[in-house]
């Protein structure tokens, strides 16, 4: 143990890592850069628009929209942590990333994903209270409770990511500094270490499984109770309205959890059977698809947000036409 500690402290870390992009798909990098740029633009504009509409409209100051606003912010953080560098790699071949920047990127990417799963749970709980206990909605989900829930979700993500980042960043890197990935995904980085990366990898797998697994169980329980309450309503219109409200949430959750879980477990269990480029592409799309589609889903399926966005865009276009004339 003493020898290992001495080895860790005396081994010099590389000044830079080099991101491979998507191994085996180098010929498609330009097309991938165009696709990612388009998706990133949609994600930025869509999520910023969602945040602007919620902040500007006093009638949208409800728990559901508060959590949606925080989710939009996390989508921007998650996509912005990886997409600009990916596009740079795919377009110009600028694959170099400094040691500190690599672990900073790793921290923000994985922390943002941990926050997002907590927000999805909070949104499911919000729908449960709104549909199953409507008379107590405002007394349960007060502004103080919403802020407290958001803080707990954030602290949980920090508590998970800080030890993981410390464990990986303190591994000795004495060999290759080429990361076979498009961003500093922690398993891909840990594989380059000269020491055994299993402790950090196990910590990541167990921690993410506990966080995601518990959130999924509570979300499933919430929606089971919601569906029971919905189908117990006598009015068909009330049933359809409740199902429509929950439909957007369930679609967003499917977009987040299905590719996310596939990415995590393919990296662990399918590494010898699933081609590396498929693993990397799946991990890349997992970080880009939800931020791109979330604002579209909420904008199209949530009537209040759809009306506010249409009104905001109409005013902007009308004011621009007046100034132009």
Automatic annotation (TrEMBL):
A Pfam match: 7tm_4
Residues spanning the membrane: 30-53, 65-87, 107-125, 145-168, 202-226, 247-268, 280-300
Topology with respect to the bilayer: Multi-pass membrane protein
Domain G-protein coupled receptors family 1 profile residues, every copy: 46-298
Main location group: membrane
GO molecular function, one term: G protein-coupled receptor activity
A GO CC annotation given for this chain: plasma membrane
Keywords, in A-Z order: Cell membrane, G-protein coupled receptor, Membrane, Olfaction, Receptor, Sensory transduction, Transducer, Transmembrane, Transmembrane helix
Localization per Swiss-Prot or TrEMBL: Cell membrane; Membrane
Function: Odorant receptor.
Family stated for the protein in its record: Belongs to the G-protein coupled receptor 1 family.
Protein name per Swiss-Prot or TrEMBL: Olfactory receptor
Gene: LOC103197130
């Amino acid at each position: 143990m003493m020898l290992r500690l001495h080895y860790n402290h005396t081994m010099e870390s590389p000044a830079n890592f080099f991101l491979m992009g998507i191994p085996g798909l180098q010929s498609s990098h330009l097309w991938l850069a165009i696709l990612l740029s388009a998706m990133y633009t949609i994600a930025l504009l869509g999520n910023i628009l969602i945040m602007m509409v919620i902040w500007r409209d006093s009638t949208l100051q409800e728990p559901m929209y508060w959590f949606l606003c925080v989710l939009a912010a996390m989508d921007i953080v998650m996509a912005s942590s990886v997409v600009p560098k990916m596009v740079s790699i795919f377009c110009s071949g600028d694959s170099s990333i400094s040691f500190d920047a690599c672990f900073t990127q790793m921290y923000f990417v994985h922390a943002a994903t941990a926050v997002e799963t907590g927000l999805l749970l909070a949104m499911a709980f919000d729908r449960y209270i709104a549909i199953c206990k409507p008379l107590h909605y405002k007394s349960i989900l007060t502004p103080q409770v919403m802020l407290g829930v958001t803080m707990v979700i954030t602290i949980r993500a920090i508590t998970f990511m800080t030890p993981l980042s410390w464990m990986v960043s303190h591994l000795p890197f004495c060999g290759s500094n080429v990361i076979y990935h498009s961003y500093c995904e922690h398993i891909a980085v840990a594989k380059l270490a000269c020491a055994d990366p299993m402790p950090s990898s196990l910590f990541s797998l167990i921690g993410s499984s506990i966080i995601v697994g518990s959130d999924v169980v509570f979300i499933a329980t919430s929606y089971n109770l919601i569906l029971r309450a919905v189908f117990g309503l006598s009015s068909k219109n009330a049933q359809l309205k409740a199902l429509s409200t929950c439909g957007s949430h369930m679609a967003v959750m499917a977009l987040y959890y299905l590719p996310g879980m596939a990415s995590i477990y393919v990296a662990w269990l399918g590494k010898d059977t699933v081609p590396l480029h498929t693993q990397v592409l799946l991990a890349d799309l997992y970080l880009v698809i939800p931020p791109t589609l979330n604002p579209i889903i909420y904008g199209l399926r949530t009537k209040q947000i759809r009306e506010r966005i249409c009104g905001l865009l109409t005013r902007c276009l009308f004011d621009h036409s007046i100034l132009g004339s």
